[in-house]
From TrEMBL:
It holds the Pfam family DUF465. Gene3D superfamilies: 6.10.280.50. InterPro entries: DUF465 (IPR007420), DUF465_sf (IPR038444). This is DUF465 domain-containing protein.
């Protein structure tokens, strides 16, 4: 049971959820008039880091076969 909580598949799901949450937050922040540019840049940077982590996990879990 403990292994399931820390499995790469579960981590991938959690990262995808966090990425989707950040997308929503960034969209909402862009619609507000007084935009905190620094906070928005930090959110976007975090979103990019998550995307990279997701890509690495996906490659680890499902490596491409050599041609």
């Amino acid at each position: 049971m403990q292994e399931n909580l820390h499995s790469p598949q579960r981590l991938l799901i959690e990262l995808r959820i966090e990425h989707a949450d950040l997308n929503s937050l960034i969209d909402r922040a862009g619609q507000q008039l007084p935009i905190d540019e620094l906070a928005l840049r930090r959110l976007k940077k975090r979103r990019l880091m998550l995307r990279d982590q997701i890509a690495q996990l996906e490659m680890m879990l499902d490596p491409k076969e050599p041609a």
